[in-house]
Design a protein that fits this description.
By secondary structure, the protein is an alpha/beta fold. Helices cover about 30% and strands about 25% of the residues. The radius of gyration is 13 Å and the shape is globular.
């Protein structure tokens, strides 16, 4: 019989680390490991520091200005899709 259980992984972007930790504490899961290095020219590249293949991925991010918040969320979603996440859901905080 195939295992249909998909693991749950919750990641927070730079603007919502505290909120993400609170959500994970409430659910009893660990915060997903990710990073977002910022280059000298101000550009950044969010990336996952653990495998997310086949997982339900939830991303928590605040979207009010600056525009980098929204861009970081979109880049995290794109990276999750490219890393073969089973499903990707975004929770935005206004």
């Amino acid at each position: 019989m195939a295992n249909n259980h998909k693991s749950l992984k919750i990641f927070g972007c730079r603007a919502t680390q505290h909120l993400t930790e609170s959500i994970c504490d409430s659910l009893g899961v660990d915060v997903g490991k990710s990073s977002c290095p910022v280059f000298a020219d101000g550009e950044f590249e969010p990336c996952y520091e653990e495998t997310i293949r086949g997982s339900h991925v939830f991303i928590v991010q605040s979207t009010p200005p600056p525009a980098d918040n929204l861009l970081e969320l979109l880049l995290m979603i794109d990276a999750a899709k490219r890393a073969s996440a089973y499903k990707v859901k975004a929770h935005t905080r206004l």
